[in-house]
Write a structure and sequence with these properties.
Blueprint: E1 2-6, H1 10-20, E2 25-29, H2 88-101, E3 108-109, E4 112-120, E5 125-132, E6 137-143, E7 145-148, E8 170-173, E9 187-191, H3 195-205, E10 210-214, E11 229-232, E12 235-238, E13 242-245, E14 250-252, E15 255-258, E16 276-278, E17 281-283, E18 285-286, E19 290-291, E20 297-299, H4 308-323, H5 332-348, H6 363-374, H7 381-396, E21 406-408, E22 414-416
Parallel strand pairs: 1-2, 1-7, 2-3, 7-20, 8-15, 9-10, 9-15, 10-11
Antiparallel strand pairs: 4-5, 5-6, 12-13, 13-14, 16-17, 18-19, 21-22
The structure holds flavin-adenine dinucleotide.
Length: about 425
């Protein structure tokens, strides 16, 4: 079986690690000049030297928002070190050491941008068109199966605000944010209180005059922010120099800083692949992973608020159970039914399509379901426990949560040091 892996970020590496230990022929196409995806920091924003949009959204001072104890792969842990919350550089080093340990570089074609994926031979094969960026030539290859590992933090989602076009200040999405100095002495509205919005409000508060965190959470966030950070509801309207909030208050503002998340995007999948993005729900997929239209196409890494690297590993092992023929996929009708039921259940919990791939506090159910369904080694429950502990601490004590240090003592328990 010949498998294509698109992208050499942490998901693509997990794909290679497991495909390489089987009897598969594999090629991984990576459009940038190095492995690591999101964890590669680049000062440039906009387009790269080949005219392609810069992929990474990494910022210079980023420290992980999860402890290293939950950031490894099941069979390759992040090495021990005094801190639990690491720098972006340490994570990139870790990914490079994973890549070397499993001798994965031989499969990776750097500076190869996948431009098109389409079914061929009546849906039994996949044709992939790839641009060799250095030589500016097109390579066409045929594959039996495709793992799409292109990430989902590169296509900014920016809300439409009344009066946005009249605003005379600066507007920036977190995708293009690198260093806090650009906000020195400015009044900045941070839109969105997800992990990025919270982390960046804290980071820029060291330079900005005033940070206004605008969000639509029902209650104010209970954490203690630095003194120059205040919370406001959503924006009602923007004028030349001011922002009016839903509570009627008005503030003079220098910067609108959109920490409003990202859109799932698969620009290279042809329409015949049958994958749609509907209100940020990627569909039709079995278990957030397998194309229901043609199960030899899989999108690895879609769920968010997860133990990412371990989940990628689990998803890939799941896929290979089916692609190797050890397991048979359910009928198309049953897969569609399962997807529809999950959407229905989420609606009952108040979660719409936009949150279809959110796992969060219930991520353990997803992991167990994958493992039980495919008959593969599950992820240790301690990962979910520690992820939940860290997420709770993040919300309770944004300023200090990274001082905590943890140690996993067995598959079920961790201790705080
Ligand atoms: P990516 O890392 O985005 O890799 C995708 C790869 O695909 C890239 O190398 C890209 O160049 C390549 N690619 C894309 N399109 C093509 C194409 N057409 N052809 C060829 N190659 C292509 N997670 C955590 O667990 N802890 C954290 O603390 C954390 N912090 C984060 C902070 C920020 C600012 C961001 C943006 C994300 C953070 N994440 C964090 C989530 C992080 O994205 C995941 O942990 C993980 O790295 C995603 O891996 P990936 O391989 O799915 O995607």
């Amino acid at each position: 079986m010949k498998i294509a892996v698109i992208g050499a970020g942490s998901a693509g590496l997990a794909a290679l690690r497991h495909c390489a230990s089987g009897t598969y022929e594999i090629i991984c196409y990576e459009k940038t000049d190095q492995i690591g995806g999101t964890w590669v920091y680049r000062e440039e924003i906009g387009l790269d030297r080949y005219g392609l949009p810069i992929h990474t959204s990494m910022y210079k001072n980023l420290r992980t928002n999860l402890p290293k104890e939950v950031m490894g792969y099941p069979d390759y842990l992040v090495p021990d070190s005094p801190d639990s919350y690491l720098t972006r550089t340490q994570i990139l080093e870790f990914l490079n050491s994973y890549c070397d340990h499993f001798k994965l570089r031989q499969y990776i074609w750097l500076l190869h941008n996948v431009e098109l994926v389409e079914p061929s031979k009546g849906g039994r094969k996949w044709t992939i068109k790839v641009r060799n960026l250095k030589e500016n030539t097109i390579v066409t290859e045929s594959f039996d199966a495709v793992m799409v590992c292109n990430g989902h933090y590169f296509e900014p989602s920016i809300p439409n605000l009344k009066g946005q076009e009249t605003f005379q200040g600066q507007q920036l999405h977190s995708h293009d944010y690198r260093v806090p100095d650009i906000f020195t002495d400015k009044t900045v509205v941070v839109l969105g209180a997800g992990p990025s919005g919270m982390d960046l409000a804290l980071e820029i508060s060291g330079k900005a005059k005033r940070v206004i965190l605008s969000h639509h959470l029902k209650d104010p966030i209970g954490t203690i922010f630095p003194e120059n950070v205040v919370q406001k509801p959503d924006i009602k309207e923007v004028t030349k120099h001011d922002v009016v909030f839903e509570d009627g208050s008005k503030e003079p503002v220098d910067v609108l800083f959109y920490c409003t998340g990202y859109k799932y995007s698969f620009p290279f999948l042809s329409e015949q692949c049958g994958i749609r993005v509907d209100s940020n729900m990627v569909t039709p997929l079995w278990k957030h992973l397998v194309s229901i239209e043609n199960p030899t196409l899989a999108l690895v890494g879609l769920p968010f608020y997860v133990c990412a690297f371990s989940m990628f590993d689990l998803q890939v092992r799941f896929l290979l159970q089916y692609w190797s023929g050890k397991k048979d996929f359910p009928s198309k009708a049953n897969m569609l039914k399962e997807e529809a039921e999950e959407l229905e259940n989420r609606k009952k919990e108040g979660l719409g399509k936009k949150h279809f791939h959110l796992m969060g506090f219930k991520q353990g159910h997803y992991y167990d379901d994958l493992a039980n369904t495919a008959g593969i080694t599950p992820l240790p429950p301690v990962l979910t426990k520690l992820h939940n502990e860290s997420s709770t601490r993040f919300l309770d004590d944004l300023v200090h949560y990274r001082e905590s240090r943890y140690k996993i003592i067995d598959d079920y328990n961790f201790i705080q040091l």
